[in-house]
């Protein structure tokens, strides 16, 4: 998953491209590059590391006059993150940037080598570039079309060609849009890259080739011109501002009460808007990362509260697993970006088997939002920190609502009566977030540790999984979440004197059991932190959150763990918004 931006117009695009890359940096940031072009020349500059490194390098070079450019920020798949492997790649007359994975790159490379091509990099992208160049005689769109018949995998390409005044783009299984305003045209992985210049765009569909000239765009498929709808986003440039916060992660956590209110509003007294899951015999929840952990909370609620059979799987397994669809099944896909490659593949698998799909998604223009049978949108707005926070909370909120509705439909709840509780929730959440000083003080006690464990049972275990993931993502401390009763079957051997163990205790039914497990680890020397809905004295630190309706309880606990992870990462001087090796939108397998 990488970020692409391209420009054609009257300006020298250097600054526009750099700014766009910074907005796309959440997609990957191990190397970056830019190609600037005029009628005769192409200048390529690349650098390893963040966009700021590229910016510095560009400022020390003499830049050519240009009115076209393509740029790329990389999350390495084929070949390590070095300058040679960074995009743009150039072979013969063709220069391109690529997001995705060419699955048959090795075979294509062998074929091209036999025919005399030499390669500089280890990337699949250079192979695609060479293949297009190989077919390029006098019409580039014909060459692109021919090359695409041989390329297997996913791609979004931005292409410029020697002695050709246009910019070209094409995509399959990787998002690419054309941005439009009165003066210039853009290509971008998403609208956030170009939001300072336009909110109008066209979604490019599979294998449509976009030819952008200085004055207009032409979209063709199989040689025929296609008319496309121009879409408009409500996103504005301010939504991407840090608003005085030191990090996006903190800003986004603090936005949780507001976005929660916005997401819940339509359903407050209108349960009709929610799909009725009780009509299905089996629910499959499929997602990746935090979205999957949100799904685990949904699974627990659907099973425990609505008596619905629910199966959860990470999308990278689900897509390849033998799934027996022998009952009336609904597949719920959860994805903030709506572009996660494995989740898209899982959705396709369900559709191929004629199974209904429901997407819980933030980005309304995304592939999952457009292709699922039904959608429930969360109103998180742009989420920029790589580690998700507010989107996760909203995913949990929507799943809680769906479970509540299913329980109501099955007459396990007599009245659909949560308006008062849902109205109170944002304020209660705010009161949790206001206690930042408490989390800071606790962070000071644990930030130097090498291992931190989380324990909980049932829904509390699902909360622990997200707490542990957040901590390792942003602070790089090794952390594991365990079902509280399972710890003693091995992992308890890792508990030493003052090893921090964070226990979550909100589920009344298993509270006493978890407390026994707390005692077990405490007696082996653990530094015991308990997050509970009732005061618990027999530990080193206790954070008490208000007891609310079981369906929504996780929404008051996870933010404590998010802020704790944030404060720990800050004390360790980590790159909180862009943790190493991660990317926000994982658009490759
Ligand atoms: C990446 C991100 C996670 C996110 C996951 C799924 O791993 O770093 O924060 O939960 O992808 O992303 P999605 O956009 O599908 O929710």
Describe the structure.
This protein has 589 residues and is α/β, with parallel strands linked by helices. It folds into two domains: 3-237, Aminohydrolase, N-terminal nucleophile (Ntn) domain (Glutamine Phosphoribosylpyrophosphate, subunit 1, domain 1, 4-Layer Sandwich), CATH 3.60.20; 248-571, Glucose-6-phosphate isomerase like protein, domain 1 (Rossmann fold). Helices cover 34% and strands 22% of the residues. It is built from 17 helices and 25 strands. The strands form four sheets. The protein has an eight-stranded antiparallel sheet, with helices on one face. Strands 5-6-7-8-12-13-14 form a seven-stranded antiparallel sheet. The protein starts with a strand and ends in an 18-residue tail after the last helix. 53% of the residues are buried. Residues 288-291, 335-337, 340, 343, 386-388, 582, 584-586 line the site of 6-O-phosphono-alpha-D-glucopyranose (G6P). 6-O-phosphono-alpha-D-glucopyranose is lined by residues 288-291, 335-337, 340, 343, 386-388, 582, 584-586.
Features:
589 residues; alpha/beta; Glutamine Phosphoribosylpyrophosphate, subunit 1, domain 1; Rossmann fold; 8-stranded antiparallel sheet; 17 helices; binds 6-O-phosphono-alpha-D-glucopyranose
Number of helices: 17
Number of strands: 25
Strand order of the largest sheet: 3-2-4-1-10-9-11-15
Mean pLDDT across residues: 93
- DSSP strand content: 15-25%
Number of domains: 2
Summarize the structure.
This protein is of the alpha/beta class and 589 residues long. Helix 8 packs antiparallel against helix 15 (459-475).
């Amino acid at each position: 998953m990488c970020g692409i931006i391209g420009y054609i117009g009257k300006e020298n695009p250097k600054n526009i491209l750099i700014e766009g890359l910074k907005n796309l940096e959440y997609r990957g940031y191990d190397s970056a590059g830019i190609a600037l072009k005029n009628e005769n020349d192409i200048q390529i500059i690349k650098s390893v590391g963040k966009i700021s490194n590229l910016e510095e390098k560009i400022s020390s070079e003499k830049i050519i006059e240009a009115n076209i450019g393509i740029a790329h920020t990389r999350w390495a798949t084929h070949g390590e993150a070095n300058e040679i492997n960074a995009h743009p790649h150039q072979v013969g007359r063709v220069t391109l940037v690529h997001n995705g994975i060419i699955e048959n790159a090795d075979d294509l490379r062998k074929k091209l080598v036999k025919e005399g091509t030499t390669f500089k990099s280890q990337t699949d992208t250079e192979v695609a570039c060479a293949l297009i160049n190989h077919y390029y005689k006098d019409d580039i769109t014909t060459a692109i079309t021919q090359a695409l018949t041989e390329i297997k995998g996913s791609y979004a390409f931005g292409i410029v060609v020697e002695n050709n005044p246009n910019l070209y783009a094409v995509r399959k299984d990787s998002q690419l849009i054309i941005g439009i305003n009165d003066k210039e045209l853009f290509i971008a992985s998403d609208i956030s890259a170009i939001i300072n210049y336009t909110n109008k765009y066209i979604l490019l569909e599979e294998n449509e080739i976009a030819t952008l000239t200085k004055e207009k765009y032409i979209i063709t498929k199989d040689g025929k011109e296609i008319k496309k709808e121009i879409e408009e986003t409500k996103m504005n440039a301010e939504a991407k501002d840090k608003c005085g916060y030191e990090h996006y992660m903190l800003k986004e956590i603090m936005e949780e009460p507001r976005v929660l209110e916005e997401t819940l509003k339509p359903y407050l007294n209108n349960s009709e808007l929610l799909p009725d899951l009780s009509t299905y015999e089996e629910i499959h929840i499929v997602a990746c990362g935090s979205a999957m952990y949100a799904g685990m909370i949904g699974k627990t609620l659907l099973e425990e509260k609505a008596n619905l059979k629910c199966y959860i799987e990470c999308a990278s397994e689900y897509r390849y697993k033998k799934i027996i669809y022998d009952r009336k099944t609904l597949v719920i896909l959860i994805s903030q970006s709506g572009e996660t490659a494995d989740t898209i593949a899982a959705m396709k698998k369900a559709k191929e088997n004629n199974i209904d799909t429901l997407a819980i998604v933030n980005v309304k223009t995304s592939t999952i939002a457009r292709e699922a049978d039904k959608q429930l949108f969360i109103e998180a707005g742009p989420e920029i920190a790589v580690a998700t926070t507010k989107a996760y909370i909203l995913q949990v909120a929507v799943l809680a609502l769906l479970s509540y509705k299913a329980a109501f439909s099955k007459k396990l709840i007599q009245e659909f009566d949560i308006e008062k509780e849902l109205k109170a929730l944002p304020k209660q959440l705010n009161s949790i977030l206001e206690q930042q000083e408490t989390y800071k003080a606790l962070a000071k006690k644990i930030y130097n540790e090498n291992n931190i464990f989380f324990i909980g049972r049932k829904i509390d275990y699902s909360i622990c999984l997200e707490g542990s993931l957040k901590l390792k993502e942003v602070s790089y401390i090794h952390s594991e979440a365990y079902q509280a009763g399972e710890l003693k079957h091995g992992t308890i051997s890792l508990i030493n004197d003052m090893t921090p163990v964070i226990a979550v205790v909100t589920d009344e039914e298993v509270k006493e059991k978890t407390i026994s497990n707390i005692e077990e680890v405490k007696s082996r020397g653990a530094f015991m932190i308990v997050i509970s809905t009732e005061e618990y004295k027999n530990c080193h630190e206790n954070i008490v959150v208000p007891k609310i309706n079981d369906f929504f309880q996780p929404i008051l606990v996870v933010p404590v763990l998010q802020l704790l992870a944030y404060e720990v990462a800050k004390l360790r001087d980590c790159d909180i918004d862009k943790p190493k090796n991660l990317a926000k939108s994982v658009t490759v397998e």
